[in-house]
Amino acid sequence: MLVQICVTLLTTALLVASACYTDSPPEQRWWAAGNVAVSAGMVMCNVDSLPLLMHSVVGYGVIGFGIALVLRGLRVYCQSTLSWTTIAIITGIVLAISAYYTLVAPSLRARLCFSGFYFALLNWMCAVAIARRGSWRISGIAFAGFVLLGLALFLRGAHLLANDDPAGTANSLVIGLSALVVPLAQICIAFGLILMVMWRYAERLRRLSTLDALTGALNRAGLEMQGKRTGLRAQRGGRSLAVIMIDVDYFKVINDTYGHPVGDEVLRHLARLVRLELRPHDLLARFGGEEFVLVLDGVDLPSALKVAERLRARIEYEMVEFDKLSVRYTASMGVVCSDQHDYDLIRLISAGDAAMYEAKRAGRNRVAVG
Ligand SMILES: Nc1nc2c(ncn2[C@@H]2O[C@H](COP(=O)(O)OP(=O)(O)OP(=O)(O)O)[C@@H](O)[C@H]2O)c(=O)[nH]1
Q1: Which atom of ligand 1 is nearest the CA belonging to 255?
Q2: Which residue numbers delimit the GGDEF domain (predicted)?
Q3: Max intra-chain CA distance, the chain
């Protein structure tokens, strides 16, 4: 038991330290608070010199409350929540039953069996909360930890139920095994939870560094990274690679006439429209202020021209609604293909750019080939 308490305190310290980061998400703080409560509860339950009520009732209640907080954190992580009423019910059940087996019908065995089964159930609820989210690569370790911890507690409870004398089971295989598995599972959970948050930070950073915040399209860095890969894939597979440069016409006039927020909405609208035309492996990037790049793998020049013409017509037809205003806009496009140029994305983009300016010179709202 001493090892178990030490590991609990250690994993709690780890979770608290990770939650101390100024911008830590709420779920991380719930996990830390939950573990602090579980640690406190475990210490209470194991200090025999404490008053009976603290030792045999409140201690269990605090552990139940702690696991409920961890569950709340997991729900928050999965964009849901666990109400305070549910947390109060979870805690109330442990307090009531522990009090019953301490004060009304005193039985250490019954109390230990109940707490084993009940805490196992709570840990499995945590595992279910994670499983609902999916993405095993990210949360597999924490999931395994909760399942394992639940299993060890359940087996401990079942073993006690099958034996009349709780003190006599201390040296049994099940109790020995659970003394090994419980700390292991606690370590898995602590590292798993920290990993889950780290993955989320990494994903947020990746999005920030590769996506354009206004339109959600790739930014230049994202285009450079993913475009290179798409180009290589097309070249290796012997497929054509098409690039379409799209530039909003008279965008400065739109900004000057209706204001920058409307201009921003036009850019978001354009990105949304283009995305409707994309296949999952096509790339859309915002190349500059009002200029976008479309990279299409496995598309030859005639097909790319069809895509561009379809887009141009749709942009011309659609209306942007913003703050009781309805605005129309058009776009000019330059289309190039690796069949005529090379697979080098930078060269394709500069040829597409030249074609797009040709379309502008020819009167705008049209498609030109480079
Ligand atoms: N609203 C908004 N405007 C932007 C953004 N980025 C750049 N701009 C504006 O886009 C305008 C681009 O103007 P120009 O380069 O003259 O292009 P244009 O008016 O579309 O003219 P043509 O391309 O020749 O048809 C400038 O006024 C920039 O301030 C943005 O993120 N939001």
Answers
A1: 1
A2: 239-370
A3: 94
Residue 214, in any domain of the structure: no
Residue 281: closest CA among 322, 326, 232: 232
pLDDT band at 93 (very low <50, low <70, confident <90, very high): very high
Rounded to the nearest 10°, the torsion over CA 90, 93, 99, 102 is: -100
Residues 189 and 230 in one domain: no
> Are 232 and 157 found together in one domain?
no
Tell me which residue range forms the domain holding 49: 2-208
Identify whether residues 163 and 29 lie together within a single domain. yes
What letter does residue 211 receive in the DSSP assignment? B
**Catalytic residue (choose from 224, 290, 291, 318):** 290
- Helix 136-162 vs helix 173-210: crossing angle, to nearest 10: 160
Region 211-228 average pLDDT: 93
Does one domain contain both 224 and 351? yes
* Position with higher pLDDT, 333 vs 179: 333
pLDDT over 60 at 307, yes or no: yes
Tell me, yes or no, if 290 is annotated catalytic: yes
Centroid of ligand 1 to alpha carbon of 214 (angstroms): 14
